[in-house]
Q: What sequence folds into this?
């Protein structure tokens, strides 16, 4: 059930300066129509329901009572009429910012000012619309009407092409959203006479870079690639021969045809994507970044190189305020004496390397999904689609990446603290084993994502069956690797034997290698830490495909297990652990046939 619109709460959220008249009503024909009839500046009208909501070009806006936001405001127009065309676009930008702030959702702007959300399957659906009308008479005033779908379910939306905030995971109240929209409108109105926010609009505009069909009138349309928004707020469409600005007309995004995309379109596309990801165009040179960040002169370049980016020349304008923020962050931790400059650069290198790998991986996953794994090589059209999709999910992935990296840090700290304790003081005695699918990384490169998912699932099922049957516990499976424990050494050995055989029997799974060690472990929050765990892990990475390597104590116990063969491998040097007396163990073939019999 959608919460009712609480007029008192909403009123309390709206400051009387500048909003000098605020009306909140249950029902009205059209909020825009009411304000057009009496356009005093800085008026707000919010309706719980409109009986004849208006769209652009004589179309309608439909929303059931109690579920959406229907609001109109009157605002003074910019002094220079040349800026008037930008007003509806900037109202869209302000609304987008309010939505992002309150719900965390990132709405794309379809020129001129539809608000679109990318839903699960990657399609873009309309969550809001804006109708700006210039009021007659008096000082130049605009009535800006904003309609947003908030609580609608699919059944309550007028078309398939529509969506609502709550369908996209928002639980935000209408009062908070309205208040935020008003705040953002005040902010944007303060600067809308100048082009300072135009690039923000361009960056959020999903129409740019796309092939579009412009419905100029009901019987005439023209097509081309949307390449820019000009100083009048018009959409500039390049039809292959010339660039034509459009101020009215309906834009239909069409899927581009690969062969028709020219190299210059491609580079414009890439620039546009970069702009959307980085939040603004490139405006700064290296020296500007150092100056704005207040950093030592060489630092930006050193960081840039450490993070693995191609060298920029002194005169290249390739940076923007994001780069400044990044350098400033690093500069601060050096200034505060938290790390020295050399370590700071190394930290940047660590981040650069691992995120590069992560982004390539994510790109591959999305590309596989979108091409249904048919094409190993994607054409330009598909590449554009994949890029759009990646950018659509980027804002949602950023908090996840931050979250995972903090969790990983917490785990790494737990491990470090456990490792720092003398082994004899730590937790409980367990036998710990790692089993690792050999050459999984190359498998990732050569196997389609679907087959890979199947492999991983079948591996996980096999492992949990085998470990449970032997009375052990699966601590975790991370894709190609499983960590298990058992209270007894014999139990750990049995798991190792059974796993090796079960995986060998499972079609398509590569072979396993296993390391088993026994000793004290620290168990925390479902995970285990300590020297014993490290020893097992290192033994695993030393083992050959199909081999089980164990430490001295496990080998001694294996000698008493009837169906185990033990081969002394001698002293093995394990990086980070030291020299360990290792043995390879295997199930004697004879006992296999006995079991079968
Ligand atoms: C708009 O027009 O999207 C501008 C809508 C402005 C509505 C606000 S509500 C407060 C204020 N008072 C008013 O009377 N109006 C404003 P346009 O781009 O022409 O899109 C209209 C088209 O969007 C319709 O023809 C439908 O196809 C579709 N549509 C109608 N209702 C919708 C909804 N709730 N969600 C998504 N799409 C809708």
A:
């Amino acid at each position: 059930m959608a919460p009712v619109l609480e007029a008192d709460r909403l009123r309390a959220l709206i400051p009387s300066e500048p909003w000098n008249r605020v009306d909140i009503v249950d029902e009205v024909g059209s909020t825009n129509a009411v304000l057009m009839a009496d356009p005093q500046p800085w008026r707000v009208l919010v309706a719980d329901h409109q009986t004849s909501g208006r769209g652009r070009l004589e179309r309608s806006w439909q929303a059931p009572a109690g579920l959406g936001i229907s609001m109109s405001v009157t605002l003074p127009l910019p002094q220079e009429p040349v800026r008037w065309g930008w007003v509806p676009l900037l109202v869209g930008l302000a609304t987008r910012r309010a939505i992002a702030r309150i719900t965390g959702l990132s709405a794309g702007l379809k020129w001129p000012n539809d608000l679109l959300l990318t839903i699960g399957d990657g399609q873009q659906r309309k969550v809001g619309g804006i109708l700006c009308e210039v009021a007659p008479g008096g000082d130049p005033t605009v009535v800006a009407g904003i309609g947003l779908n908030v609580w609608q379910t699919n059944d309550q939306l007028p078309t398939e092409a529509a969506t609502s905030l709550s369908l996209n995971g928002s639980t935000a109240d209408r009062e908070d959203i309205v208040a935020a929209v008003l705040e953002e409108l005040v902010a944007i109105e303060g600067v809308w006479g100048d082009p300072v926010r135009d690039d923000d609009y361009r960056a959020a505009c999903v129409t740019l870079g796309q092939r579009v069909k412009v419905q100029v009138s009901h019987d005439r349309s023209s097509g081309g690639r949307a390449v820019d928004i000009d100083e009048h707020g018009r959409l500039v469409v390049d039809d292959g021969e010339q660039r034509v600005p459009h101020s009215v007309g309906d834009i239909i995004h069409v899927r581009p045809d690969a062969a028709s995309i020219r190299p210059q379109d491609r580079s414009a596309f890439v620039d546009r994507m970069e702009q959307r990801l980085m939040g603004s165009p490139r405006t700064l040179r290296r020296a500007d970044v150092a100056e704005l960040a207040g950093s030592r002169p060489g630092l930006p370049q050193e960081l840039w190189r450490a993070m693995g980016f191609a060298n920029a020349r002194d005169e290249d304008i390739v940076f923007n305020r994001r780069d400044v923020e990044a350098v400033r962050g690093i500069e601060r931790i050096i200034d505060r004496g938290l790390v020295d400059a050399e370590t700071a650069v190394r930290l940047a290198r660590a981040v650069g390397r691992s995120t590069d790998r992560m982004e390539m991986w994510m790109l591959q996953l999305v590309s596989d999904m979108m091409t249904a794994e048919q094409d190993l090589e994607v054409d330009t059209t598909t590449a554009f689609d994949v890029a759009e999709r990646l950018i659509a999910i980027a804002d949602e992935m950023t908090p996840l990446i931050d979250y995972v990296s903090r969790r990983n840090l917490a785990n790494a700290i737990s491990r470090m603290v456990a490792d720092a304790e003398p082994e004899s003081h730590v937790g409980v005695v367990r036998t710990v084993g790692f089993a690792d699918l050999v050459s999984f990384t190359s498998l990732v490169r050569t196997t389609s994502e679907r087959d890979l998912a199947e492999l991983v699932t079948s591996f996980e099922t096999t492992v949990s069956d085998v470990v449970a049957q032997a009375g052990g516990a699966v601590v975790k499976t991370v894709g190609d690797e499983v960590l298990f424990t058992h209270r007894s050494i014999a139990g750990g050995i049995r798991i190792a034997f059974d796993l090796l055989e079960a995986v060998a029997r499972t079609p398509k799974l590569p072979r396993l290698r296993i390391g088993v060690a026994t000793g004290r472990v620290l168990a925390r929050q479902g995970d285990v830490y300590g020297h014993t765990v490290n020893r097992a892990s290192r033994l695993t990475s030393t083992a050959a495909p199909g081999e089980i390597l164990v430490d001295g104590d496990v080998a001694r116990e294996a000698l008493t297990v009837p169906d185990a063969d033990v081969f002394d491998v001698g002293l093995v040097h394990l990086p980070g652990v030291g020299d360990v007396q290792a043995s390879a163990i295997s199930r004697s073939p004879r006992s296999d046939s006995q079991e079968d019999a």
